[in-house]
Design a protein that fits this description.
about 325 residues, Rossmann fold, Tyrosyl-Transfer RNA Synthetase, globular, binds tryptophan
Length: about 325
């Protein structure tokens, strides 16, 4: 049995790239006892934040994940801050992590450049991420390349703790998620769709059909006259074909042959995206009308998570010298 954990930080809005890159793979592979998904609300506090927004987004992320098909009977589903053991293990792991190790993280360098005041939590964020992973003995971490360094740090921390204090943690490894597609921004096709940067080229999971239509119709293509799939020379067009392929389960190269003009392709992309989003939005609206359901899912998830996490924290405390052996 190998556990897999996926985290979603409630900053920005979930978009199509998140859907095909992380949500859909997590929904497709739900194995009782192995699958863990959580909303990492503590991570949303590492940069300037508005408390009301974090609260609203956390609930929105939870509801959207359920609406997209996450099944709490098969996947352990929780909100990070509901399980205080995340923060508790975070501290213990800080005690086996070097300042230099976190300071050289690429994401820290990039994010701290954009902040006026750099919060200490931004520096130690990868240690909290290591705690998220090690708390549940997760062996496989399906994340994108931007998180590779953080998973490597989690490995180093686990190995170091085990070597110094005894074998407490499973050493995790990064796996490439079986993504349906790598979705790029519609107006800046060199960049991935971003949830934190507001962009007219990012299709939100809660965008109504007319907004999807508007965004897709304004997607950047090129001056060519034919439809062809070439991500290097024609990235905007390739992105549209990739999105269409992800929605329909088809092949982008083959789809290119079906279209003669950009307008026709964009219309097909709009229809396909709307067909994917509509049932999710419908279920989202239903769940939003009945907040008791979501509350219960989270309550049950936290109870189950705390049982696993509590055992792990106790083992770590024993090993590191805080509890009797
Ligand atoms: N840092 C991840 C992100 O920004 C989210 C995350 C937090 C995560 N903790 C995790 C992912 C643990 C996997 C495992 O995308």
């Amino acid at each position: 049995m190998t556990r897999r954990i996926t985290g979603f930080t409630p900053s920005g809005e979930l978009h199509l790239g998140n859907y095909f890159g992380a949500i859909e793979p997590a929904v497709r592979r739900q194995i009782p006892g192995e699958s863990i998904v959580f909303v990492s609300d503590l991570h949303a506090l590492t940069i300037d934040h508005d408390p009301a927004e974090v609260r609203r987004r956390t609930l929105e992320f939870v509801t959207l994940l359920l609406a997209a098909g996450l099944d709490e009977q098969r996947t352990l589903f929780l909100v990070q801050s509901h399980v205080p053991e995340h923060a508790e293990l975070h501290y213990l792991l800080e005690c086996v992590t070097g300042y230099g190790e976190v300071h050289r993280m690429i994401q820290f360098k990039e994010k701290s450049r954009r902040q006026e005041q750099i919060r200490v939590s931004l520096l130690t964020y990868p240690v909290l991420m290591a705690a998220d992973i090690l708390l549940y003995d997760a062996g496989e971490i399906p994340v994108g390349d931007d998180q590779r360094q953080h998973v490597e740090l989690a490995r180093d921390i686990a190995e170091r703790f085990n070597a110094a204090y005894g074998r407490v943690f499973t050493v995790p490894r990064m796996v490439n998620p079986p993504i349906a597609a790598r979705v790029m921004d519609l107006v800046r096709p060199a960049d991935k769709m971003s949830k934190s940067v507001a962009s007219p080229g990012s299709v939100r999971l809660l965008d109504p059909p007319d907004v999807v239509h508007h965004k897709v119709m304004r997607a950047i293509t090129d001056a060519g006259r034919t439809v062809g799939y070439d991500p290097v020379t024609r990235p905007g067009l390739a992105n549209l074909l990739t999105i269409l392929a992800a929605c329909t389960g088809d092949d982008p190269g083959r789809l290119a042959e079906e279209f003669t003009g950009y307008r026709e392709l964009k219309q097909a992309v709009t229809d396909a995206v709307v067909a994917v989003l509509e049932p999710i939005q419908h279920r989202y609206a239903e769940l939003s009308r009945d907040p008791g359901i979501v509350r219960k899912v989270l309550r049950d998830g936290a109870i189950e998570a705390r049982m696993l996490a509590g055992t792990k924290v106790a083992a770590a405390k024993r090993a590191i010298g805080l509890l009797p052996e």
